[in-house]
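Anyone up for a design puzzle?
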């Protein structure tokens, strides 16, 4: 191996027949193995979904004129659309200083705040919706922020990559490598995600903490569709609308 050659693996490599047979052998649940076979048969022909699919769902679900707090808003892409298309009263929170400047340049109000320090500057129920779009796995203390989100907002919107997806399980079980998928595109050495969890993990947390799931959507086989708790194996990314019970 050359000195500057790196060890790694290609993104989203299709499983071989041998790998599939090994994976099936590892799974005593025949229904699970059959489901994986079905998914593999359709995976190759499925079109790639372009863009952040969550943004369009949020735009479709939030009523015009709502008040929205976007936690980890990045360069303000979603808030910009919400403000101009739905006339929402929007406020962003972002840690990255360069992203904050981009948000300000496009006219999106944003605060340069570290979410791990909490939301003490925001009053109870001061927003109709509080959004955590892809931000939750990057936080050092995700549970306090979830509770703060439901204190500050009448409803919370959370999206995250599902570590229970069959492709993630496949890469870990058979290939023995950290997975690289559309929802988890980074390598083990440069990923911003420090807390990985599954759809089942999150719905368990909701049940224990009396948080109602008022709506749920998922990306499955490049299609956006309503989500059920039983989709833990098939959904790549999840988007949930939450309300404190």
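Challenge accepted. My sequence:
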């Amino acid at each position: 191996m050359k000195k500057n050659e790196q060890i790694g693996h290609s993104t989203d490599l299709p499983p071989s027949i041998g790998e599939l047979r090994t994976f099936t052998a590892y799974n005593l649940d025949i229904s699970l193995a059959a489901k994986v076979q079905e998914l593999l048969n359709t995976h190759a022909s499925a079109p790639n979904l372009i863009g952040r699919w969550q943004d369009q769902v949020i735009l479709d679900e939030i009523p015009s004129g709502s008040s929205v707090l976007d936690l980890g808003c990045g360069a303000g892409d979603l808030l910009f659309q919400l403000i101009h298309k739905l006339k929402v009263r929007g406020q962003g929170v972002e840690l990255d200083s360069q992203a904050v400047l981009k948000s300000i340049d496009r006219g999106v109000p944003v605060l340069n705040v570290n979410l791990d320090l909490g939301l003490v500057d925001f009053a109870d129920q001061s927003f109709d919706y509080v959004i955590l779009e892809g931000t939750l796995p990057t936080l050092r203390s995700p549970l306090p922020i979830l509770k703060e989100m439901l204190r500050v907002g009448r409803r919370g919107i959370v999206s995250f990559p599902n570590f229970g997806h069959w492709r993630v399980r496949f890469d870990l079980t058979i290939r023995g490598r950290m997975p690289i998928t559309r929802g988890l595109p980074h390598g083990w050495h440069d990923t911003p995600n420090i807390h990985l969890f599954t759809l089942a993990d999150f719905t368990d947390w909701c049940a224990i903490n009396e948080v109602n799931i008022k709506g749920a959507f998922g990306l499955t086989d490049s299609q956006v569709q309503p989500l059920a708790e039983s989709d833990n194996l098939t959904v790549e990314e999840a988007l949930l609308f939450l309300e404190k019970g």
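A detail worth pointing out: Helices lie at 17-26, 30-43, 53-61, 77-86, 97-105, 142-152, 166-175, 199-208.
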